[in-house]
Design goal:
alpha/beta, D-Maltodextrin-Binding Protein, domain 2, 2 domains, 10-stranded mixed β-sheet, 12 helices
Length: 325
């Protein structure tokens, strides 16, 4: 039986539109079951706290539990790999961090490619860093530090947490951009590093604002500069490193990513809800309490930031000849 041309065209257009309507309905219904948010680090740390904060917000807004699944190990690669292998339906998400951008070059062989295998959903925050010294250290400004380091090569030690962490990479970036030599004193984590800096057993460190600000205000540590692009409200009188070293900026960051090919409607829905959370006064206050600054934006803006960060830290990894521990 032949159909009239008008009826045939009407059915053909409807058939083409059906997948689009189905995808739209799928996104509107999302989530249809609990969502797993993989955090590639151990419970209790700053990143984990942020994940639980955002997960609770999304649970309240979207009506399904957002369950935090901590998968620590291999510098964040175990959890990231698990997320990469998950179904691209929005029911498994990754709490992505600056470590993912570093690991892309730090590790020669990964079973996943972070940029290829993940779709950026939403940035959440930046983690400001401060360059600080023990009060007995001679230099009181970044130019004085550079001058002293040039006059005393290899006599300055800088405490650092594990390779690939934001403070470690900030130290390597500083060395690359200034040409100074500083001897790394490695620590398993920031708490032990900070203890030795307070005790004068090491001279210099990059550290997160949240763990250092009270020591700085009490005069137990001296802040030379913040590593952010602009001055911070928490330390308004402290200059940026960029004031002395043009273009310098280093910080940690967190965001949400999903397996590549997750429907765009789901990504957009999550992005809207996360940005709404970042605009909420209670969420903003809680982020400030853990020493981070909110960083709202579109999926495209987050994608651009990830690409820039990956390229930036690749140069530092290669310059320093870094290898995973």
């Amino acid at each position: 039986m032949k159909l009239p041309r008008r009826q045939f065209l009407h059915l053909a257009v409807g058939a083409v539109a059906l997948p689009t309507v189905s995808r739209l309905a799928w996104a509107q219904a999302y989530p249809t079951r609990p969502v797993r948010m993989i955090v590639p680090f151990a419970p209790g740390g700053q990143v984990d706290i942020i994940a639980r904060m955002i997960g609770q917000w999304l649970s309240e807004r979207l009506g399904q539990p957002f369950i935090i699944d901590n998968r620590p190990g291999a510098g964040g690669n175990i959890g990231t790999e698990a997320a990469a292998r998950s179904a691209a339906d929005g029911h498994t998400l990754l709490l992505a961090t600056a470590t993912n951008a570093v690991n892309a070059t730090l590790f020669d062989k990964l079973s996943y490619n972070f940029i290829r295998d993940f779709a950026p959903v939403a940035s959440i925050n930046r983690i400001p860093l401060v360059l600080e010294v023990h009060p007995s250290f001679q230099a009181k400004t970044v130019p004085e530090l550079i001058g002293y380091a040039e006059a005393n090569p290899d006599k300055i030690n800088i405490a650092t947490p594990p390779k690939g962490s934001a403070p470690y990479m900030a130290a390597e970036l500083f060395k690359m951009m200034t040409g100074v030599n500083m001897v790394h004193v490695p620590y398993g984590g920031s708490p032990a590093m900070l203890t030795d800096l307070l005790g004068g057993r090491v001279q210099i460190a990059f550290d997160g604002i949240s763990s250092s600000v009270e020591h700085i205000r009490a005069g137990k540590l001296r802040a030379l500069a913040v590593a952010t692009a602009a001055r911070l409200e928490t330390l308004p009188d402290i200059p940026t490193i960029g004031d002395s070293v043009s273009g310098f900026e280093a910080s940690g960051w967190c965001g949400i990513a999903a397996p590549r090919n997750t429907p765009i409607g789901i990504i957009d829905k999550l992005n809207r809800e996360i940005n709404a959370g970042l605009a909420d006064p209670k969420i903003k206050a809680r982020l400030a309490d853990v020493g981070v600054t909110a960083l709202a934006g579109s999926p495209a803006e987050f994608e651009k930031m990830i690409a820039e960060e990956t390229e930036k830290w690749a140069k530092v990894v290669k310059f320093a000849g870094l290898k995973p521990e």
